[in-house]
Amino acid sequence: MLYRAEENDDKKRLDVFLAERAGLTRSRAEKLIRDGLAQVDGKRVEKPGLTLKAGQAVELIIPEAKPSTVEAQDIPLEIVYQDDDLAVVYKPSGMVVHPAAGNPDGTMVNALLKRLDNLSGIGGEMRPGIVHRIDKDTSGLLLVAKNDRSHLLLSEQIKAHTVERAYRAILIGRMKEKEGDVSGPIGRHPTDRKKMAIVPGGREAHTHWTVLEELRGATLIEAKLTTGRTHQIRVHMASLGHPVLGDPVYGPKKSPYPVEGGQLLHAFRIGFIHPATGERMLFEAPPEPRFTNWLEKLRLQ
After folding, report:
1. What is residue 190's three-state secondary structure?
2. What is the pTM assigned to this prediction?
3. What letters, b where the CB count within 10 A reaches 16 and e where it falls short, cover 255-274?
4. Residue tagged active-site, from 9, 135, 137, 247
5. What would the pLDDT profile of 110-130 be if each residue is shown by its tens digit?
């Protein structure tokens, strides 16, 4: 693909320019540049941050998507909604979204490959479909793209913070306020690389929380995300001294209640603009029995 930098592209970053012109996510454009697949005025460039000048010729080679090496598996999966462009699915707690070291199969992607007729391949491998993720032990709604155009447009909504994502969580302890905001930047923990933390230089992260119900030694809240960082709600709530009940990573070593199966956190609402129709879509789903059973146990009445 050959492009020409126009006047309004003067001083624009190469990765931004290619993301816009080639219809890619910025991270995908950056990877292709670092892999040596971009040229500016006939010379190979491997710096995504290169500043362009008006009139320069930019060429990009996009390799064909590789067939997925992930095996389709017949795993029970609740599909809340689907059409030709996207799907909304319910991820149970205990299920990993994408195969990785330690979780080679039994994941959401394995199930999607079996259940859906198509998934996007914008990440460079055919049919991964994943637009965003939620933690292994968090249950709830997940948005899946079924073609590259939908993947790109949905990713842009997430980047622009226009996708509505709301969670329910049971926190340890009673909150002093009825609602509040946490805006601590999140990055890797300085000493424990398996954990995230609020750290200087971390990525911007903002969570708004509202108390829904006071419980015995705990609080039911709704948390709304404007950003979606790894472990965001878990890190932010722990920073307030009220970690999510059952959280084995950010909670206390000795939990006040014997919760099994991980944190009591549920992604109950997702709202977005349909990439093909422009229609505003909103989906909600109740939490699993594991969550509701603990809620009943902890209720004051």
Report:
1. coil
2. 0.77
3. eeeebeebbbbbbbbbbbee
4. 135
5. 888 888 877 776 555 544 688
